[in-house]
Amino acid sequence: MEKRMSLFVIVLIVLAVSSSTVLALPPMGPPKAFLGQDQWALSLGYAYSQMDLQAYGRVQEDQGAGWLPATYSKHTIEDFTSNIVLGSLGYGVSDNWDVFVCLGVSDAQGDMSENRLDGSLGNEYSGLDCSFGYAWGFGTRATFWRDGDVIWGGLFQATWQNPGDGSVTLKPTGGDPSRLTGDVELDLSEIQIAVGPTVQLDSFCIYGGPFFHFVKGDADVDVTGEDSFGATWRVTASQDIREESQLGIYAGAQWRGSETISWFAEYRMTGDAWGIGLGAILKFQ
Description:
By secondary structure, the protein is mainly β. The protein has one domain: Lipocalin (Beta Barrel). 6% of the residues lie in helices and 70% in strands. The chain contains 1 helix and 12 strands, in the order H-E-E-E-E-E-E-E-E-E-E-E-E. Strands 1, 2, 3, 4, 5, 6, 7, 8, 9, 10, 11 and 12 form a 12-stranded antiparallel sheet that branches. The chain is elongated.
């Protein structure tokens, strides 16, 4: 059994690191303390997620005759897709309280369109593609009370993600056939707060409940090119990113293969986001 569990952990690591699918609804795990007092645990979690985001900020254009006055507009980021791989170290402060820190990598892909104040569609940014960059965070889990095989608790976790510098293609408004290409830089943070029950069934448990999901970040875009008349065209944008939906629900299952090794799988969704997660946990003293 121990060999099978070790093999599972190795396979999970390979899948997570080699996945080429692309902020990220990081995996949460059960909403309760599960380490035990003075117990330690190493874990590896992988999440794939897709969400719609809002962005507000400053846009400035040079259409070949100098910079025009800056404007402020709203942008919609559609199908913002991400992979995140997080390794974490947890500690059981007591039987009812765990704390943990995590470190890993994340990437990002998506499309962004400008929505002007008059309701018209502005510039369209496509092919936003950021490579893997570092991610880190911390969190805590607590057990509130127990009722037989049902354990009620909650969790809080915060993560910061800095996908590597990426590329983007801009289609200027007005139907000009030219394309502008350039760079995009993203900085993102997420907070997840969940409460709910965990139902214990021998070595297997199911868990879930409602959760709040908050996103905050920055996107800086700098693209340049030539229009169909050969004039240099440059656009810069500095945007503040926010979530579109804050309330969601999630559900998962956790298996204990031995006294030291367990793993979990879960699904998370809000009104404008969804994600799946996998994780493996190794407990030790």
